[in-house]
Amino acid sequence: MNSLLRRSLLTQINITRAGQKLRMDQNRMRSGNEDGPLHDLPDFHFADGRAAPITAKQEKWMKTRENEQNILNRIKSEVEQDRAVVIDKIKGMEDKILKTIKIKQEKKKQRETLFNNDQTTEKKE
Question: Where found in the cell (predicted)?
Answer without folding.
Answer: Mitochondrion
